[in-house]
Every structure is written in C-alpha cells, then in structure tokens.
Amino acid sequence: MKYLNRVLLALLLIFEVNSLHASSIDDDTLEIYSKILPRLIFMSSQKEKIDKSLQICILRDDIDENSALTLIEKVTSHYPKGIKKYNIEFVQSNYTNVTLCKQTQLAFMFTSDHKSFSDAIKSLNNYKVITMSYDPKWLEYGVETSLFIGRRVMPYLNMKALQKNGIEFDNILLRVSKIYQEGVQ
Amino acid sequence: MRQVLALIRKINETITIESKVIIGIVIFTILVISLDRYQLYTNIITEFQKAKKAQHELLINTIAPIISLNISLGLDKSNRDYLDHIAEQNSNVKLLVVTSAQDKIIYSSSSKEMGEHIHYMTNYAKKELFDTVTQERLGQIDIHFDSQEYSKMIRKNIFSTIFMIMLIVTLLSIFIYILKKEFKYLATLSDSVLNYDPSENRLNLAPTTRKDEVGIIHNAILSMSIKIGNYTQLLKEVNISLEEKVKERTQELEEANKKLEHLALNDPLTQLPNRRHLESYTHKSLSFAKRQKSLFSLVMCDIDHFKLVNDNHGHISGDFVLQELAKILKSVVKRDIDFIARYGGEEFVLLFHDTTLEDSVKICKNIQKKLLDYGEFVYEENVIGKITMSFGVTSLVPDSETIEEIIELADIALYKAKEDGRDCIRVNT
User: B401 catalytic, yes or no?
Assistant: First the structure.
C-alpha cells in the first residue's frame, strides 16, 4: 500500500508537470494565430515555395496535441476552401520528428523543453521554414515570428533571425507588427 | 441723395478731364485687377482643394492597407487602436468610419452622425478595403474632414468679390453719370456755338464757374464771341464810313466829269461853248428845225483888228477883250433857245431859232450899239481903245442846206463885211 501511494504520488507529479505545459494555451490566441498563419506565408518570401498547396507544420509535445488539433480546426474553419485557390495542408508532429516539416513553408511551435525547442529551431532554419512560436518568449532563442499580446495584439517579428535565415516579409506587414528587440520584452 | 449728386456735380466741375480720364483708367484697372484677383483666388482655392484632396488621398491610401491587413489578420483591437490614433492625430478628421463588406459599421471615430454632410471632394474621402492576400473586398473606409477652412475661404472670396464688384459698379455708375453730364454739357455748348449769329452777336451762354477744361473752353467761346461782336461793330462802322467816302468820291467824280465836259465843250477864257459844242449843237438844232419846219438864222461875227490889240497891248489884254465881248454878247442874246459860241480866235457864232433874217440883223445892231455904249476897253489902266465887230448873217429855210453850207454862207457874208470896211452887217441869203 505504501508502495502504491508512492506510485500514485509520482504519477500525480508527472501529470501536474505536463498539465503546466498544457494550461498556457489560450483559445482566443489560437483564434488569432489560425487567421495569421496562412496569410503570413503569402506575405513572405515563402510564397515562392508554394507548389500546389500551403504546407504548415505544427510542432507540439504530446500534451499539446489537442491544442494543435484545435488550431488546425480553426484554420480550416477560417479558410474552408483554402486561400487564393490553394489548399492548406498540415503536418503535425512532435519535436522528435522535425524532419517532417522540411517541405513546409511555416512551422508553428507550441511550447516544449528548451533543448527540443532549440534543436527544432536549428533544423527548421536549415530547412528555410518560417518559425512561429505560440509563446513570444522563444523569440529570444531564435524563433522568427510570434504574437505580441499587450494592450494590442500584433505580429511580433524577430528581424535578426529573419535576416539570418533569409526570410523577407511585405512592408505592409512590418507596419502592423511589433519588432522584437533582444533584451527588451 | 440730392446732396450727394450736388457734391458729385461740384467735384465734376472742379476736377479736370485729365484727372477724370485717370480716375476712369484707375477704376477700370481696379475692375480688371478684381476680376484677376477673383480668378487668382479661385485658382488658389482650386489648388488648395487639390492639395487637400491629395493630402486626404495620401492619408486614406496610407491607412487603408493597414486597416485591411488588420481586418484580414483578425486584429480588431489593434485596428481600433490604430484608427483611434489616426483620428486623434489628424485634427481635421471629423469622422472616420469603417464598414464591413456587409455595410455594417465596424468602427466609427465618433458617436455622432454626420447627417446630411456635403461631400465636397475636399472634405470627404473614401476607399474600399481589400484583403492584401486574397483581394477580397473587406469593406470601406470613409473619412470626413473638417470643411470649415475651405468654407471660410469660399465665403471670404465670394464676399470680397461681391464687395469689390459692388464698389466698382458704384464707381463706374458715378463715372458714367459724370461722363453723360459732361457730354450733355458739351452738346449744349456745341448747339450754342452752332446757333451763334455773328451779325446779332447773340450767344446763349452765361459765364461759368467751372475750373476744368470744359469751363475754360466755355469761357473762351464767350470771350471769342465778345471779340467777334466788337470786330463786327467796327466793320459796320468802317462800312458806313466807306459808303460815305464812296458817295463823296462819286459826287466829286461827277463834278469832275461835269467840269471835264464843260471844259471839253466850252471855251475856258470866255466861258462860251466852243466850236466842238457848236458843231454838235448845230446838228441837233438843224435836225430839230427841219422836223419843225421852223426858221433858223446863223450869225458869224469877228472882232475887227484884233491882231493889233494883241500886238500892241499883249495877249492878256486880248484875252480881256474877248472876255468882255462874251459878256456883251450874253447880255444881248438872252433867250434860252438861242446859242452863242466862240468859233475860234476872235470869231463868234450866234444861232437864233424861229428868228427871221431881219430880226437877226436887229440883234446884230443891238450888239454894235452895246459895243458903242461900252466905250473904250481898259485893262489895268491900259487903254486898249474902242472895239468893233463885223457880222455875216444868213437865214435859210431848212431842207435845202447842211449846217456846213450855212456856216460857209455866213462866213462869206462876214468876209464881205470885212471887205466893206468892217464894223458892219452883211447878209447872205
């Protein structure tokens, strides 16, 4: 019995840790992301990579799988017929299979542990895929875009990372976006 | 009004035509400048409109893509903040409205409706919003700008233009009134000059107090008419004087003519008709006697030894004798119808109408008696002595001889008297 209690306590701790990751996902924020994602591709140099459809990669830990599905549903809901005659296709993967995102134009990244996240960013940069994190704190670690949520909500661009990876955005997007500056949150 | 017209009239009479012309040119220049100013101001307003429109277009073209993007990205809050910021920063934005594709207002900078806002091109701008990616219509943005500045400019221009036009119309009316008066005055002046009769010297003009050129001309005409009057009077007087002189000269001429005629027909020494007069007279007398079938006697007489008088006592004494003898003949032959003439030298001819030969001889005897009664002729204490005459008488019935024949007959009788010792009467019939 004493052993059972220890096992239950351990399971409880594991659950709590995992639940900490999952609890930071906000539905409204996902709603905004779902609108932005496809358009971001068309407003960037990535539009040249579009062949027959838009390819969006969603990286998440298992704990955020539902959120990832919700996001896909929202995007599909907003763009039921795709956008500009292009269908929108999703690749959903955890951080261990980043290679699945190689052919996509944009990778949306839910929160993960530091190492997995950093490794994924490196790989995605090599694939020349736009990276967008749910949490803007990852801009500090080389993510190219996110969402600034303050008094207003607006796209958050890491110009340094974008320049480093050769990604360009339309000027008009820059006018409605907040530019990330290192050390300033 | 009457006082104003009187004042205008006084000014009109005071200022010169040159000044009036300058005033007219100035008014006309003001009119041209006013019209030009109005046109210039209108152009400025037009340019202002264009500039404002361009400014508004720039604003709406700048914000429309951002709004479109915000809408397409679903950044509603960001969009509202942005539009609030725009409305706040642009003080001339009265109302900023964003409507959705379904014409539903999704943003308005003011809760107030603009109502029947006049959509001047300058104070209103609109633009449809399109998705920058899909080009779908997202809605429309309408911006109403403050039109006060523009309205103020329009009002100011209209007001100033109306004011200028009214002022110019008033000035031009006064100017035309003055010109009309001027021309009327000139027409009256012209009529007076045309109707002027120099003979009567009557000009229907009174002196004027005007100081301008018209006044000067007016008074100059008056002055000229006075001078013409004076000269006309002078001419009249000269004419009268000339007429009198002509009359006087004519009279003198007539008298001179008479004298000349007298001199031509009479002997200046004895004042008796001369031989030329005798010839003329005897022709007329003979014609008259022939017509009347009346008697006609002619006597030719000569002073006896008259050459001795001239030689012994001088020609002056001879002339004296001739003059005295003429007086004696005149004293004897008294009838108007009878005629005495100096035939030449010391010869005289006597013509008697309706006189018989016997009566003629009697007259000759009377002459001899007068000479006898006269006694000695004395000229200036110079005793010339007694003078006698010889007479040749003829008396013929007309129709048978000419006057030359009659004179010749009398001359023959006279010659006979001279041969018979002088101082006698001989008859030749």
Answer: no
